[in-house]
Amino acid sequence: MERVVAKFGGTSVADAGQVRRTMALVQADPRRRVVVVSAPGKRDKTDKKVTDLLFLSHHLATGEVSFNEPYSIIAERFKTLAADLGVPGAADEALAELHAGLTRGESRDWVASRGEHISARVIATAMGAVFVETGDLLGIDAHGRPTAESYPKLAAALTGDGLFVVPGYYGHGPNGRVKVFSRGGSDITGSVMARAIGAALYENWTDVSGFMMADPRIVPQARSMSEVTYSELRELAYMGASVLHDEAIFPVREAGIPIHIKNTNAPDDPGTLILPTRDLAGTPVVGVAGRRDFTVIHISKAMMNKELGVGRRVLGVLETQGVNFEHMPSGIDTMSVVVATEELQDKLDDVIEEIKRVIQPDDVQVFDDLALITTVGLGMAHQVGIAGRCFGALAQHGINVRMISQGMAELNIIVGVQRDDFEEAVRALYEAFVVDLS
Ligand code: ASP
């Protein structure tokens, strides 16, 4: 039988009411055989996530301060959850293990992983499903990525038509001890499980109805995307569209398994389908996203174009200082490097000094007020007039464009604008592409 992996995020398992919705959704489609759960998230804006409370407990425990306060909140939440789901006591054993682990000084990762561990055990009991301790089977390498050896092991543990509940977020590191992915990493677990069982689909159930074509805080009327490709999504997620962990697409992408983002609280909404390819007709552009804080280091030197190795030396300086760069627009005698401002932190002075030493430039200037905005869509490729439309819209809004970048793939056009123009520019581009073209 065709199987689907259904991953439910923190708000979908935040309390018994939400877990009941989750369980009803699982039961509504017999293909949903592997259920991946997060730790309980926020029930409302002022609430705490269980994972945050676990980090706090660990922090207190390592400082030899009583961890009782956060621990009691966690224990109370899980006990209430289990009782409300009609399986009182289902969390007790795992909670006792957590208490003992905190007392004996278990690692930060082990403590953090207990939110998903206990959540999965309680929900499995409530659903009459099989809890699978995938932490022992899912290897996470030194870079925080799932290992290739994990897949056959997970496939073997998840065979048959049974209903399995699996904890998200953690596996084991190269030393065999519990290791967590980065925050929000249950999305990666879901993707790994889908790949392991050769799922027909990876459903990611969350609290929004998919990806919006622009940040709704900037464009309140922004529509949701019905389809987006993996590569388009990478561009948008990198620039700030956050619904899914940005590493979650890799395991399924290799196997060509689509991801469907769905809303647990509005299951009839169509959501967003993430696919290897999509029908480009009608929507050449899928979305507009951006980030505010970029710094530009602008270098000028007469006859730079005739001097070999300038680019290599500039990038060498950044590499030695451990600074990632984003773009490198250049002129005949000038070159700029665009860097996320947080990358530079207290390294800026050293970077400038080194550039001066290795390039001997006439001038180096630093601008720390650049915002980058990307307009993404595979349908732009080989289409005349897209850039014209982009710059026309910005000009109409009186926005000065300070940097432009478009790769040969024609997957996106990136513009750099003054930080103060950021929101206006996002709105202008959204209107130009999303509203006009539909
Ligand atoms: N519970 C973890 C976090 O809050 C992982 C997840 O929910 O995906 O980051």
Q: In terms of topology, how is this protein built?
A:
Elements: E1 4-8, H1 16-28, E2 32-37, H2 50-62, H3 68-84, H4 92-104, H5 108-127, E3 130-131, H6 150-157, E4 164-167, E5 170-172, E6 178-180, H7 186-197, E7 201-206, E8 227-229, H8 230-238, H9 249-255, E9 259-263, E10 272-275, E11 287-300, H10 310-320, E12 334-340, H11 341-344, H12 348-359, E13 363-376, H13 386-396, E14 401-405, E15 412-418, H14 422-437
Parallel strand pairs: 1-2, 1-7, 2-4, 3-4, 7-9, 8-10
Antiparallel strand pairs: 5-6, 9-10, 11-12, 11-13, 13-15, 14-15
Helix pairs in contact: 2-3, 2-5, 4-5, 6-7, 7-9, 10-12, 13-14
Aspartic acid (ASP) is lined by residues 10, 38-39, 49, 51, 115, 168-169, 183-187.
Give an overview of the whole structure.
The chain has 438 residues and is an alpha/beta fold. 38% of the residues lie in helices and 20% in strands. The chain has 2 domains: 4-275, Acetylglutamate kinase-like (Carbamate kinase, 3-Layer(aba) Sandwich), CATH 3.40.1160.10; 287-435, VC0802-like, CATH 3.30.2130.10. It has 14 helices and 15 strands. Helix 2 runs antiparallel to helix 3 (68-84) and helix 2 packs antiparallel against helix 5 (108-127). The longest helix is centred in the first third of the chain and has 20 residues, at 108-127. The radius of gyration is 24 Å and the shape is globular. The two termini are 39 Å apart. Aspartic acid (ASP) binds at residues 10, 38-39, 49, 51, 115, 168-169, 183-187.
Main attributes?
Carbamate kinase, eight-stranded mixed beta sheet, VC0802-like, single chain, alpha/beta, binds aspartic acid
